[in-house]
Amino acid sequence: MVLYFYPRAMTPGCTREAQGFQSHEPDLTAHRVAVLGISVDSTDRQKEFSDRCHLAFPLLSDTQRSVAKAYGVLGIFGMAKRVTFLLDPEGKVVDVVVGMRPGPHVEAAMRRFASPPA
Question: Which residue range(s) make up the domain with 54?
Fold first, then answer.
């Protein structure tokens, strides 16, 4: 599973990240990997963001910030930091990607879950 936190729906970086995961969603799904995005945005904003980006995976609304706090990704301005957790089939975290650039998050998920065996 790809569990990714992002700061704010419909901003340039978050849009690139969502579109990046969406462009690889069929390959991830073929490898039995689900994608789930989370931010502190409202459900209405999440729905609008999902519709604008034509996302086939769910977005969670964490307006109470409890999930972001539990994962240790709540930033000082009350938004989630851009952090991606890669989980194995048993739910164990196997990798964590931290950083503001969205590309490395998508690339790490593809390397971990969808790359052909070497």
Answer: 2-113
